[in-house]
Amino acid sequence: MKRNYRVLLIVGILSAGLWSFIPSQKTSGDEKDKMLIELLSFVLEKGHFSPIQLNDDFSKKAYASYIQSLDPTKRYFIESDINEFQKYENSIDDMIRSKDLSFFDLTYKRLMLRMKESKEIYSEILSKPLNLNDEETINVDYEKLPFATSKADLVARWRKQLEFAVLSDITDKEEIQDAIVKNADKTISQVVDVKENKEAVKSAPKTFEQLEEKARKNTESNLNNNFSFIGELTREDWFSIYLNAIVTQYDPHTYYFSPEDKEKFDVSMSGKFEGIGARLQKKNEGIEVSELISGGPAWRGKLLEQGDIIIKVGQGNEEPIDISGMRLDDVIKKIKGPKGTLVKLTVKKVDGTIKVVPIFRDEVETEETFAKSTVVNKDGKLYGVIYLPKFYQSFENKSQRDAFKDVAQEIERLKELNVQGIVMDLRDNGGGSLETVVKMTGLFIDKGPVVQVKPANGKAQVLPDTDAKVQWDGPLVVMINNYSASASEIFAAAIQDYKRGIVVGSKQSYGKGTVQNVFELNEFVRGNQYGDLGALKTTTQKFYRINGGSTQLEGVKSDIVMPDRFSFMETGEKDEKSALPWDKIEPADYTPLNVNFDKVIANSKHRIAANENFNLISENAKWINNRKEDNTISLNYTSYKKELADIEAQTKKFKDIEKFKNNLTFTSLPYELELMAKDELLKEKRDRWHSELIKDVYMTETLNVLTDLSGKDANTTSMKGQKAKKTKEKKLASK
């Protein structure tokens, strides 16, 4: 793909303009914060696709977004706090210009105070039995709920919230007891921890008073863990929240990354990092190993285990450091490190013994990020399914694996098995690299335009596939849903516009038609004494289909619509308050294939209309939509149980949706079967995926569509046949 000189020009202009941003030798937290405000304002003004005017209207929106971020459930601030804050409601624009931090300082200090008070409130309420017999209700539509009028009102609000949590816990445990008593077929472990189930089976059913006491302890423990996590957030973390309340007013995808967030973003995009390959979580007793990443150094070493508690971390032969009381992010930083270096973890094993576990760091691949494929035999024909969770690419090292290379490799492996058609499953794929999706689309089409990209007040640039080679020219179906976004929409739109395949799934995709670039803020400042300033991801362009239409807000509309639970719900970009508008430009010069999918589409629509599962899903979607305004819940134990029973009765017929199973068998490819023989975790993950596909009514119908596409009666011809026809026509014309 050609380099985006428009973006390079923006970077050049910004860099030149920021030479005046030379920090003083003496720095403080406030000075760094002021620097960030000035820097972000400048970058957004010069680099954003659609800069907005900083005025009172902007201030009101940023103010509302910030307060919502600080207290979304309205359980901290009271009315007097909000009255005090509101004098700044129209002044955020002025404070940005003057780098005034008084509003942030006020809200930050007040929030810390209110959170401390809230912990005292819930601890006091949960210290004694709750009255669950009063005829009270709670409204859980927090957005429409006003702030508490006083501290007494806030205490009453906390009490209701805690009663709701305790009621929910009690009824869950009663459900378990009933299942045990009735020897029900349901799997009890679906509800609570397996160990607790075993104890419950051995003991007699608990009384209501015992269940209530246990539920209060559980609720308090959960809240303590939550407050412990929040307590680890630094002033810098909260300032990032303030900054993002400001920058997201430009559009939903403009976002400030603190240094830690930028690192996580890079890992999510590349699917790789250097470390030991273990996921950690903070528990009451310390930092616990929650999972070992298959293939990582910790997994290969076989000394570190899930459930181990990390006590100390040592670098190489240095004296280990006690990490008790340390923030989880700080512990992770100490454990991560360059490939080939040694880290020694002192851990408390599940059996209570203390051991030192040496691990040489290595490159770790977060396997769940990458493309994977499977084959299925249907009606005597073999088909391939490629699932792609995102269009990943390493920005730092383009020689590493990316979605384009991996999908190309999976196609070759499927071709070796002589599959008759391929499904590209892009459900829940939120997008990723623009360069990658352009190249990946080229795997399925002859050379030609893939997408158009347009900067603000500039001419649209066509991004083409320049390689005439077609990796797969057979039947193709693309699966999307409400959460297929950005690069997924580029791919699906191009396949649809070229009539290269059929797009199936939700009524439309997410509707994100914008391009973001990540600007490293450190690069714009000379003589930086502040340390890492993080990065700004901001919208610099919009992209358009080759037919000229934008996917912004409207998304990609499926050729075959399959009912889903969100059919009647408002989801997607169009629900974002700061979303950019839809528009249209001139189409690119492209030639769609001469195919007619009408019969295949009509067959599918007929099957869907007659399918009991799809009819149930559609009915369930209507039921969910009708209930979305029902936000009032009883806090009376008897009434609450009745409400649950009523809902259970209403939804009983919808449970048949979960019972669906097709009669298909999904099998991993030969190379992966060899890996699975040595890797139990990989085998478990693939078995789980295949089990989900067996219960996936959407995949079942998609394979029906693919069968129709590959059938003799399909009114389509292969790309290979059409290319041969075009070549013959050109030769005849030249004569």
From TrEMBL:
Pfam families, A to Z: DUF3340 (PF11818), PDZ (PF00595), Peptidase_S41 (PF03572), TSP_NTD (PF17804)
Position of the signal peptide: none
GO cellular component, one term: outer membrane-bounded periplasmic space
GO molecular function, one term: endopeptidase activity
GO biological process, one term: signal transduction
Keyword Protein biosynthesis assigned: no
InterPro entries: ClpP/crotonase-like_dom_sf, PDZ, PDZ_sf, Peptidase_S41A, Tail-specific_protease, Tail_Prtase_C, TSP_N
Keywords noted in UniProt: Hydrolase, Protease, Serine protease
Disordered, as annotated region: 711-735
Superkingdom as given in the UniProt entry: Bacteria
Domain PDZ: 266-336
Family: Belongs to the peptidase S41A family.
Protein known as: Carboxyl-terminal processing protease
